[in-house]
Specification:
mainly alpha, two-stranded antiparallel sheet
């Protein structure tokens, strides 16, 4: 930094380079964080879809078992 007689501070060209490097580093970190959040949400959605498919399959199995139990206990519908 360069100080002038009017107590005004101006940035030297090297200071601007440092600020640009700092801004680029911050943007890189923000971008990496957003990418990780997006990746986690995608993985979570895929896992949730698999769990829902398995639950639907289990629900179908339970209804079949219920109907079998009704038939075996003699409460089946004619």
């Amino acid at each position: 930094m360069v100080r002038y007689s009017s107590d005004r501070v101006r940035l030297a060209p090297a200071d601007w380079g440092g600020l640009c490097s700092l801004a680029l580093a911050i943007l890189t970190l923000v971008g990496a964080t957003l990418w990780n959040v997006w990746d986690l949400s995608t993985t979570s959605r895929e896992r949730l879809a698999r769990v829902e498919a398995e639950l639907a399959h289990l629900q179908a199995d339970v209804s079949l078992l219920k109907s079998d139990v009704r038939v075996l206990t003699g409460r089946g519908r004619p």
